[in-house]
Please model this.
Amino acid sequence: MTQPFRLPRGGQIDRGRILRFSFDGQDYEGHPGDTLASALLANGVRLVARSFKYHRPRGIFAAGPEEPSALVQLETGGFTEPNRRATDIALYDGLRAASQHAWPRLENDLGALIGGVAPLFPAGFYYKTFIRPRGLWRYLWEPALRHMAGLGHAPASRDPSRYDKRHTHCDVLVIGAGPAGLSAALAAGRSGARVILADSDPLFGGALLRRAYRIGEEDGTAWAAEAVTELAAMPEVRLLPATTVLGRYDDNYFVAAERVGDLLGPAAPAGLPRLRLWHIRARQIVLAAGALERPLVFPGNDRPGVMLASAVESYIRHHAVLPGRRAVVFADNDDAYRTAATLTEAGAEIAAIVDPRDKPGLATQQIVRALPLWTGCMVVGTGGHKALRRVTIRPIAGNGSDTIIDCDLLAVSGGWNPTLHLYAQAQGRTRFDEGIAAFVPDGEVAGVEVVGAARGSFALSKCLADGAAAGARAATSCGFASAEISEPPIVPDDETGPNRLSLLPLPQGGRHAFVDLHNDVTAADIALAAREGFIASEHVKRYTTLGMGTDQGKTGNVVGLALLATMTGRDIGETAPTTFRPPYVPVAFGLLAGRAKGRLAEPVRVTPMHEWHIAAGAVFEDVGQWKRARYYPRPEEDMMAAVRRECLAARDGVALLDASTLGKIEVAGPDAGRFLDRIYINRWQNLGVGHCRYGVMCREDGMVFDDGVGARLAPDRFFLTTTTGNAAAVFDWLEEWLQTEWPELDVFCTSVTEEWANATLVGWAARDVLALLAPGLALDSAAFPHMTMREADIGGIPARIFRVSFSGELSYEINVPADQGLELWERLIAVGEPFGITPYGTEAMHVMRAEKGYIIVGQETDGSVTPVDLGLGALVARDKDCLGRRSLARSDTVRLDRKQLVGLLPDNPGDVIPEGAQLVAVLGDVPLVMPGPHPGMIGHVTSSYFGARIGRSFALGLVQNGRSRHGERVWAPLPDRPIAARICPPVFYDPEGARRDG
Amino acid sequence: MLLIPCPWCGPRNEAEFHYGGEAHIARPPHPDALDDPAWADYLFMRSNPKGPFAERWVHSAGCRRWFHVVRDTATHRILAVYKIGDPPPSGGTGS
Model:
């Protein structure tokens, strides 16, 4: 017989359709409207998980997102998701789920042997036990523990699902669609305000779905359905069912996860996102998030069949499933007596109502009548191995004897905690309300209304009235005239009397009395923490792992706090709850990434010549967002061979580099020269039109920020270049100073990086190649010397040609409008062919610039290097102020032992020192590998290559007082061997610049 | 995610802006005239009040304009917004 625990009537399920699903390979049936949890219960499946630490058998404990036990691995392959709560997986046809963390099988889990020796694994066990011997942690303890502990498995293959994001605004965001939330949404919606109503359940109604309420003349469920119909018809109202609000951020900014395709599983239509992330900016919010029921702490309170009383009601009335046929209700409050009534109505037998109080409230009398009531008693044990078979009851006072009662369901309730997560994230303060024994909102938060059970106000009549009033207030404060408030429906009184926080006397010091079912934290663990001096709740949390599971302690935290308070002789109000951090429930990484993955993870910037580089077989490197050709290997060539060939081509013939990625900024206006004088350490006002200049800019602290060559295009117009990866930062820097400090300067900056393509023609034959393309342009050094620029027409392409050199060779940087960059490049390749023109990439560029000792900002510098350190002190103009200049005279920047730029020649010309290697002045007296800074450490290597033309390895580095150490020997102490090198000036090739200037 | 009322564009999400630290730190007109402690004071020392704080923001993904914000550092509430060059609103900025 299928679904033996399915009730014949009632519930919000569609009995007309059958959904087939499997759990741990076994096939079952359920209905639309089921969760995986309710469908498992309908089929009599009790054991669904093994606990985190002790591998204890666990069942379904709750009916919502607070579930601490019933975590499953949903589906397989790339779609799989670990640690999904069975209680909020909507059932769909073909669903496949499996238990986690059991080996070899859920029924016979060998890990459960740990449960037998649980006293050996108290809180702090790992910290105390596995600390010695130290070496074993990494190789033995950690791998073994990771195998034993943990939950589900992350997918091993790519998630095929799509995830979407939406951003929206609203006047009033209502969180929670129970009676209070629905009332609030109706009141706000009727005023015309733009309203969003979100609830994590696919069906709106909240508590109305789990208990038989009367509202006016109708059922609570019918009232909820009518409210939803009315809301759905309002044009400004958006309903977000199956949407969990994850967190609240500044100025009422909310992030919520909507389950879309997730409700249908892997077979969902391809266009549907699995989940959708909502970013919602709300002017006002009504928080009607309800309350979470607390468990009671007693030995064996984790056995499958022990369930929160509210969950029992949910399964019966919402899902039409009877979670057990013979039930015991164990509760310290009147509210749970209604669970007994619901169970009776559904046909279950109540074997006992156990109440630690001596006198239940008056409201319970009508319910109890014929039911066996055990007041002043508690449950001290549960029996049955993988499912509950019996409970043991004992009077709290005196020496009464134990009574064993057979049952297959134990409904527990220790009162209710208002769900304060989002309220706390809105910086709301809380206080402990003795009347309901729970933390409740204290005071007001602007823009946040808290109503209903979330405020600690549980009576239905008050939820409806307060919700409506709050919704109207929220709409009014957004400027909407509130609609006439309709006559409130008559609601039978359901006041349930006060709650309390019952801390039961615990046999065996609280072993097997679980506070946190997710992380297997027992009352005994909390007691141990308190004994060892952990008093603060945040400390106890970290020591015992209380509330650190994927459920974040939604059911157990406050109980744990109460235990801690009692054990440390304090009032619970004196202990602060641990911080409610977002997200409210675990979130798939895929949802946060949305579509920004793979090719869409980050914008890719390519130069106009990119397609040519691809066709030429270039290997690319990422420079910021740019793709740059690194080298162009020929068949059979490795990188070293290709770079060597490219370098020699540039040094001995002619070569071509795509330098289009250089940052380019035009600075225009009558004060442009004066402005640049303040930005750069050297002078710019006196630069002649048509001339180029190398400039360095510093931050105010005197550290090098960027460098580059610029030119004066006209008296009031400069063209600057920046380091590729620094273009945006330099542009922002210029804007910041112009806007905030020197608004009186008449200057305008424009980023023109993308406007110009740059083909850099390098080598002694560059002049001959260029002459073929620009026959009218005088190219001899007298007419067009180094560090000047000319505008020219290259066969119809307007060009700015800068005779500057980053390679040390004769070099023309030919800038043309970007859309003609490829054409220019192809023409250069064509006319250069007889000269053997060779395209070269960034790697050869790096080798050649380093041979010349030219720095790269971000490689030779790291934000702690001044121009003086780099040997560029002579650039600093003496007769003007500029950013950072004063800092170059600070006591720290004039220290004699600062690291200075030097060259390094390894003793063995074949040794290339790894970049980043540390340099030591002494070798042998101290061990090479030791903790802390090496006493002999005097510098480090910043750039290191094999120089093709100089025929040997070389490096640039920063060494303390390096300029006075030329000729001295240093070592790079590598793990396998030291490399010896000699300090030298940082120029290795053509120090006179004859080739560049020729 | 603060909602920052850009004086040029209106209220926009914080993600469109960049932070620029404490406002009204004028660059000394004659840095050379300052001794090391005075220069270091300009360079490094910033106030860190709990409460209203005048600070600089730039609407980098919008109009690219710098402006001033008075923000309560304890509540994150934005108390005032004003343009560069305007004096801080009366009532103090905590600094």
Notes: The first strand of chain B starts at residue 3 and ends at 6. Chain B has a mean pLDDT of 93. Residues 30 and 46 of chain B are 20 Å apart (CA to CA). Chain B touches chain A through 27 residues (CB under 8 Å).
